[in-house]
Amino acid sequence: MAEQVEHRRSVELDLRAALENQELDLHYQPIIACDTGAVMGVEALLRWHHPLYGSMPPAEFIPIAENAGLLPEIGEWVLGRAMTDSKRWPQLQVAVNLSPVQFRHVDIETMLRQLIVKHAIDPSRFVLEITEGVLLESTDRVSKVLAAIRDMGFRTALDDFGTGYSSLSYLCNFQFDTIKIDRSFISNMSKVDSSKTIVKSVVTLGRGLGMDIVAEGIETEFEAIMMARFGCTEMQGFYFSRPLPVTQLIDFLKTYEPKPMQPALEPIKAV
Ligand code: C2E
Ligand code: MG
Ligand code: MG
Ligand code: MG
User: Boundaries of each EAL domain copy (predicted)?
Assistant: First the structure.
């Protein structure tokens, strides 16, 4: 227990230095259209190379950063870097994760307005991803901020759908452009029949409500074909590519050959 507290404290101190020492970096994971197989966009994912512990997963250090009050600053750095990098792939959408903390404690509207001007970007190229947790907190404020973000021209996505408590009908109130179905549902499709049914229903209902659907964590051809067959819009996962540093992403884009995901006619066996 004491050791854990100590570890968190030292990570926290190191994180403060990390921003200044340029130890933070963004990797980008391609997002693929289900019908044509073309790369439509990328998701920016934060990476930290700790001088002692090596690369540390964001799931580990982001909560520490949030608690330490470092998130507004790190979040702004992420947005700025993603906007700068976006100039290198002008044809692609760029998805950026927002922390709930950025909704709670920061004048996120002003920050975004300033970033648009500073980086001279077109907000409609950017998809801001938030998780369900944000929606459960203070509905009024959150829907106002979300509406303001959309009015500025940004697109919005609900990340990790299915891991929280919200229902699709509840989500209608927030008018997201995109729903991202969490990897846990995708990876269960080959094992649990009900997962397939749930995923298929989410796709049908979401599309019926006018939203795009992205499937997260596609690792096999089976999963890719299933999602295409269900009428999903886009997908991302190790099957297509891991998150890549900028130069590797540029190489990937040069050599990538789209495989149209024609839904197979014969039944697909789970692998
Ligand atoms: P997320 O936004 O849901 O991002 C997707 C995560 O799934 C990424 O993990 C990605 O590397 C991983 N992933 C993608 N395809 C596959 C696959 O086929 N198989 C498996 N096993 N994993 C896959 P990562 O980069 O470790 O990020 C974890 C989470 O940390 C993100 O989940 C997001 O919630 C958060 N995060 C990452 N970058 C940022 C950031 O800049 N700001 C904030 N606030 N949160 C971030
Ligand atoms: Mg995300
Ligand atoms: Mg996700
Ligand atoms: Mg996640």
Answer: 8-257
